[in-house]
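Hi support team,

I've been running sequence recovery on a batch of backbones for a student project. Most finish fine, but this one hangs at about 90% for roughly twenty minutes before it completes. I'm not sure whether the input is malformed or the queue is just slow. I've pasted the structure tokens below so you can try to reproduce it. Let me know if you need the job ID as well.

Thanks,
M.K.
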């Protein structure tokens, strides 16, 4: 059925005398956010993830396929409402498949483990715990779900109650047939090989065609879905890292990039300088480069960037009025905007292991409208009183001022 859908899509595009316009389903892609309560960091023009997720689940007619790192719930939270809606969908006959990584389930059996066992009890639901990436020290880190094989959400939001209420996140909802086909291809491969650490990825590039359309100004927009780790050692056409690096190489005026964590190394302390190198090269060409991360980062990891002329901002979200919430009040979104035209949004932090060892997924966008929307989100945080610039102090030590 998926191959037939792909063939029909290609036949449709081949038969078109012009590229579809933005009223066509191929252009149905919508930026969605989550932001910390008790801050003014939300955007009125952007829908919140909980509302979008609830709408998607309510419209499910056949299937809901979920791939996430872990699940952590809390009573009466936004995520609690989402999970109850999924359970209700399963109860009314929707087939639900959950794919989760084993790492946090083993680490937190009394919390995350209990949430997983609760999902196992749902009717019409199959749950698989994968260790597929553990051989290389990786995890199933992608965060997405697909409804009826037609309506998808991909973003930085974990299935964690804190992600919807107390963390800055960004994602995209899309109903574009080429992009959903790509994401469904990844899900099926990971689902079928969940228990096989020796399994080779089988992600045929023919199922990773871009969504292409013209906007109201006649500008051609292109959005592609790509993955990590690299499934094809020969061509790397489906791997997201080369696409991200190439976007920086093409920058003419500005690069804005954000993630929760930046570290120019792998977890085993080997250097990872691919991103740092292209960012510094961009500065030498006269490009303004801004890197924004959460305050939990170690300043010393940014010495190379600072020495290379990159501006670095640390964001610190204040404690909630209810008290300290562990592993919350963070900026967790992972995205980049280049020249208000090119953009990346994904699930990987800016560390080597996320691109070489773990399952992550990205959207690569050549779209002025979508890039500018993401740029506005970046600027709202960058210019806020929550963000301090990382600079050397009088002793030469890097500190956020």
């Amino acid at each position: 059925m998926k191959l037939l859908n792909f063939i029909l899509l290609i036949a449709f595009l081949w038969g078109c005398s012009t590229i579809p316009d933005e009223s066509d389903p191929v252009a149905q892609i919508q930026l969605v956010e989550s932001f910390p309560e008790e801050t003014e960091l939300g955007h009125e023009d952007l829908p919140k993830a909980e509302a979008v997720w609830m709408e998607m689940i309510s419209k499910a007619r056949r299937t809901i396929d979920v791939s996430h790192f872990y699940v952590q719930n809390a009573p009466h939270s936004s995520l609690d409402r989402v999970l109850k809606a999924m359970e209700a969908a399963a109860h009314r006959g929707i087939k639900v498949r959950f794919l989760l990584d084993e790492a946090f389930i083993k680490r937190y059996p009394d919390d995350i483990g209990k949430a997983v066992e609760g999902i196992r009890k749902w009717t019409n639901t199959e749950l698989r715990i994968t260790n597929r990436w553990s051989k290389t020290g990786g995890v199933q880190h992608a965060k997405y779900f697909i409804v009826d094989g037609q309506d998808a959400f991909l973003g930085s939001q974990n299935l964690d109650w804190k992600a919807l209420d107390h963390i800055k996140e960004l994602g995209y909802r899309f109903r574009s047939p080429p992009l959903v086909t790509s994401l469904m291809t990844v899900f099926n491969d990971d689902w079928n090989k969940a228990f096989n650490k020796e399994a080779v990825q089988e992600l045929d590039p023919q199922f990773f065609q871009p969504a292409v359309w013209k906007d109201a100004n006649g500008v051609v927009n292109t959005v592609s879905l790509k993955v990590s780790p690299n499934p094809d050692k020969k061509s790397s056409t489906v791997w997201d890292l080369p696409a991200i690096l190439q976007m920086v190489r093409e920058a003419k005026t500005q690069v804005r990039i954000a993630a929760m964590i930046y570290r120019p190394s792998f977890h085993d302390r080997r250097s990872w300088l691919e991103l740092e190198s292209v960012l510094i090269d961009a500065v030498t060409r006269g490009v303004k480069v801004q890197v924004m991360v959460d305050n939990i980062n170690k300043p010393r990891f940014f010495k190379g960037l600072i020495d290379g002329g990159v501006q670095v901002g640390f964001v610190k979200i204040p404690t909630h009025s209810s008290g300290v919430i562990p592993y919350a009040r963070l900026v967790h979104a992972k995205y980049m905007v280049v020249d208000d035209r090119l953009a990346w949004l994904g699930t990987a932090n800016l560390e080597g292991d996320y691109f070489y060892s773990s399952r992550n997924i990205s959207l690569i966008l050549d779209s002025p409208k979508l890039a500018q929307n993401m740029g506005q989100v970046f600027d709202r945080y960058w210019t806020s009183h929550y963000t301090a610039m990382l600079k050397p102090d009088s002793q030469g030590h890097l500190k956020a001022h």
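--
Follow-up from support: It reproduced on our side and the slowdown came from queue contention, not your input. Residues 1-17 have pLDDT under 50 and may be disordered. No action needed from you.
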